[in-house]
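Dig into what follows:

_____
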Amino acid sequence: MFTTFWEKRESLLVNSSLSAYLFRMVYHRVLNKFAKEDAMHRADERFCQDMNDLFYDEEPFSLEELQQRIEAALASLPETYREAFMLYRIQGLECKEVAARLGVSDKLVYYRVQQAVKLLEHSLKDYLPLALLLLSTHVNYSHSL
């Protein structure tokens, strides 16, 4: 705090005593810290509640249903996006390898994967946490390139 005060010493206007000014400075810093921590705490609670709601839902969906929805979402992607996504995210190839295989630039592969992820997020928004879990573990899909 004193370093901040020292760095801003030329632009600061102290209208009261220096000790009163420093007290107010510390006071506002503490309030800001508490507000930030409170926001983080509320976000954590919301996330935990959402996960509890998802996993303890009264009508849970089966993993088979989820896999079918993921496959349908993948099938609905434009062919170029699906190819890049499957090679990069599912088969785990490097971006350069995907680019070489598809005959395009690295940047285009990155763009296509990024767009595929956006479309999948939209298609699977109701199932997103579980879908991400399945996609991150490289579930074996029946799609072939």
Observations:
- The two ends are 58 Å apart (CA to CA).
- The first helix runs from residue 2 to 7.
